[in-house]
Each structure stands twice: as C-alpha cells, then as structure tokens.
Amino acid sequence: MKQDKLLLIGGSAGSLQVILSMLAAAGRGYSMPVVVVLHRNNAFESSLEELMASRTQVVIKEVEEKEPVLPGMVYLCPADYHVLFEQDRTFSLDYSERVNFSRPSIDVTFRSAADVYGAGVVAVVLSGGNADGAEGMQYIKARGGFTIVEAPETAEVPYMPQQVLLRMGVDLVVPTEELPELIRGFGRPGHR
Amino acid sequence: METHVIQYEELELLLGDLYARYGYDFTEYSKASLHRRVQRIFSLDNFPSFAEFRYRLQHDSVYFRRFVEEITVNVTEMLRDPGFYRTLRMTILPILATYPFIRIWHAGCSTGEEVYSMAILLKEAGLLKKSLLYGTDINPLVIEKARKGIFPVSQMQKYSENYIQSGGVQDFSSYYTANYHLAKFDSSLTGKMIFSTHNLVSDFSFNEFQLILCRNVLIYFERELQAKVFRLFDYSLENFGYLALGSKESLRFSPIADRYRQVGREKIWRKINEAG
Lengths: 192, 276
Hints:
The complex is a heterodimer.
Chain A lengths: L5 E6 L4 H11 L7 E5 L8 H10 L3 E3 L11 E3 L5 E4 L5 E4 L11 H12 L3 E5 L8 H9 L3 E5 L8 H9 L4 E3 L4 H8 L6
Parallel strand pairs in A: 1-2, 1-7, 2-4, 3-4, 7-8, 8-9
Antiparallel strand pairs in A: 5-6
Chain B lengths: L7 H15 L8 H14 L5 H10 L1 H11 L10 H15 L5 E6 L5 H12 L6 E7 L2 H9 L1 E3 L3 H10 L10 E4 L2 E4 L1 H4 L2 E5 L11 E6 L8 H14 E9 L14 E3 L5 E4 L5
Helix pairs in contact in B: 1-3, 3-4
C-alpha cells in the first residue's frame, strides 16, 4: 500500500514569519496535506487564517471536525481545541485539558498523526518558548516519521527546538532561511 | 520508557467488553480522542499489559467507574465564549420570556458551570422564578459536583471577565460566597436546577424543552451517533425551540438540518418545522 504522507508544522512564539515563508514556498497544490499547530491567543483569532491566505497563495482553512485530510490543503488548528486524526483520515477536535499549557497542543496532534500516518509523517518544530512538541517528535521518530527542527541559533525563540534536541536526535536541524526551500523540496514527486 | 501503546483493535475489544458487561456503549465515540483518553488512564495506572487492563475492567466495577470518570472530558467554564452568552441574553431570552414556563436542558453539562451561567442570565432577566434547568451527564461524579455548586475561587476572576464581556452589569461576586479557596454559588440559583445522570447514547427523551444546550459534546461522537443524538434533541425540543452547540459544532450535516434555521452567527439554531 502506498504510504499516505502528511506535513506537520508546530510553532509558538516567534514562528509566524517562518511559517508564512514555508507556506509561500510550498505554494498551491502541495503534494501532501499540511497541518499547522500554532499556539495562538484568541485575540487575533480569525485574522490569522486570512493573513496566511493573503500572504502565501495556499488554500488554507481552519480544521473542522470530521472533515477529510486532503493533499493540496493547508489546515490551521483552531484556537482552544486539540486536533486529532482518525484512522479513516479525517480530523477530530477535542476540548480536553491543556497539554504543556497549550490547546491546541503540538504534542497531542503529533502523537495522533504518528498513530495514523506512521512513517508518512514529516514534522517540523519551530521557534517557541514552550516545551510543547518535544514528546510528540520523539513519538513520531519511534514510528518511522521524519523529524526536522528549526536551528536554535537562528530561531527567534530557541527554547522549543532546543527542547526537542535535548530529548532526541532529529533527522535535520535546518537554519531558518533554508526551511522554505526544504519544504518545497519535500513536496516534489518521488521525494522520500 | 514508554508504556505499551494500545492498538485500535485492542480498543475495539475493550469497548465490546464494556458494553457486554456494564451496558455502557462507547463504540460510536470518535476513536482518536477516546484512544488518547484510554491510553492516558492505562499509563497513569501503570498497567503492565493490555491483558491486565482488560481483565481489571471486566472484573472490577469500582475501577470501571473510575474509567468512565477519566475517559469522559470534563473541561468546562462559566460563560465560556462570552459572545454566545451575549446572544442568549439579547436575542433568545426575550423570546423565552413570552412563555409561561421555561424548561432548559444542558445535555453533557459536566460539573455544571454552564447551568449556573444560564441561571445567572435568567435571574438578571427576571425569568429564573418561572424556569427549570435540567443538567445531565453520563458521569455521576461530575453530576455530584454540579449539585453542590462549589467551584474553585481561583477561576472567579476569569469568570468575572467573561461575565462582563457577556453583557453582565452586576457585581459577579454577588452570586457566590467565597470561603478559603472555594466559591459556593447562591442557593437562589441552585433551587431551580435538577441534575441527573443521562447517557445520550442509550437514554431516551425525558421532557420537552424550549432550549437545549449541548456544547463540545458532539465532537466526541462519530457521525451516526451524532445523527442519533440530533434526533433525540429534535424530539425533545418544542416547535420554535432553540438548540445551542459548541463553537466548532454544526447542525449542517445532520438529518434534522432542514427543519432548523441558524440564529445570527452564533451556534444557535431555531426549530422552524415539526418532523413530518
């Protein structure tokens, strides 16, 4: 069976600009579904989706419960909900306790993605001041997924990628300015 | 070291056991979320193997009770999504006010914070004395807490902010008495509440209501079960009654959608036609 692929991007403080450039580089019609888990506060709620759409040309939408996970789409986790994946490649939303003080939590989404997509997962952890994502990355790695962190030296807030690196060896540590090109490459046919 | 990861096949086995042994049917719950909760209690309680976990659940009904408490999500707050409560206050309550008697059902009310929020709104609209608020949940432990009306004082600042944003103009602290770290809500509010266990999966309609609230419960159910619960709500709702859902839930794809019209931008629908 052909392995379904999925690109996960986890970011917190200081990650918005790099997310925008990665999505711009991925462009319209990217070959895998992209799911962005960004810690956000309710204040700039809906404007985020519009901002991302206007700056990147991608087709972006906030995750709705039970909708299918489709390539060519960029999905943004809604404020105040965890996002999970079902075996039939649809999304589920979950309003349970915060994890690492976060909802959506990167760990929660990453673990669930690894349960369903296994080795098809490509996951990136970006700038942030929180340890969210580190455990999820380890879980993804253990199930054969591909793990990438933004290089702490170039990240606006190095703590989050550092926390990943303290726990595990990742597949790639990538300087901020090289992330967009890397993401574009992952979308090409035959890659990995 | 990571403990055993429960496989989806194992989860199915477990759900089959629980249905056969206790009559609780979780088989139509969304699996991703349920899997996460079951994995959590499995790890928390340090089971050496799935087989032992399964055995314990089959043979220890006290432990099963703990299981139900842990796998159901009980996160709630007072006046959550203030915009929603503002709409209730400004648009819905004035219409309910025209009824001689108001019956409201909070389905899946957890520890009751939303029931108390509603009671405050009704009181301020002068409607509480002719209202009855039913709060139900599958989990007996949270129903016990809801009855007491005692919540952590640490939450009150947040609730007070929600209250003001929802259009409240009283002093929010006048609704409770603080004692050390606990806030006990006024008995004039609790007096109009009836709390009871009720399982949306297997229990029937028990009354007719003008307003049913079920927020952030349906996201844990698969489509078919959602449809079944929507039919239960439809059956329990008077004509021209209202159904309120969570901010990420919708009636749109449900079998009852064509008989309901959304009220403004909030997740509130009005029943405009009886079933044919």
